[in-house]
Amino acid sequence: MENVVELKNVTKNFKGFSVKNIDLHVKKGFVTGFIGANGAGKSTTIKMMMNLLKPDSGEVKLFGLDYTTHEKAIKERIGFVYDGNVFFEGLNLNDIKRIVGPAYKRWDDALFYQYVEQFELPLNKAIKTFSKGMQMKASLAIALSHHAELIIMDEPTSGLDPIFRRELMDLLQEIMIDGHRTIFFSTHITTDLDRIADYIAFIQSGELVFNQSIHDVAENYALVKGGLDLLDSDTEKAFVHVHRAATGFEALTDNIEEVNNIFGDSVVIEQASLEDIMYYLKGDRHRV
Question: Where do the ABC transporter domain residues begin and end (predicted)?
């Protein structure tokens, strides 16, 4: 299966924080959700994907090409959707089209106007009058209008209401139907990915915890609930993290078979959500 993005052993150091030894593959034709808490390293990783930051070490390739010799060719094939306005606020969409269009060999005016109509965006109103949701739609329309093969979205739903977030997920599903596009979707709102993600990459404190299909995540992780009397130093080894309460314990496991062998019918096993996994893996990177 072809990888659109490949990061190999990528490290970027800052004062007090670093993204360390990232090995991340984004598969062509699928939606990859990039999850992690605020400050985990999502935006730094994306900036290295887009050559806005250069790694201190490691290799970054998009479409099998490196930025050193193929920067223009790579950027022709990428569309970027940010969580806010990246254009001069006094411009309207017609102005932006006139500025942005000539920068892309495959810019398609007819497609641009099609998306403007579909997204119900005004052409002649200044971007500063747009709501946050409208600004995000405008960025998406521009990305799609030059036939971007890879759409990178950095926290696009942050600050949006639940109804608009749902509409966006429906829209992304529509644009993925033909199988020609790949979406890399960074978010800390994990519920946004439940309906559209094919793969999940989870970053925590600058380290990639896992990069798995959504099916494998569901198969590998589970919540386990039971009585406190079941816990001891040996049985706890079946869990990544345990939360105790007066009524019993709730724990995350990445080894469901071991839990079944140890506890049998004495515990309740439930599917873990992405939010559950993020919560319980916090501080337990070494167990993964």
Answer: 5-230
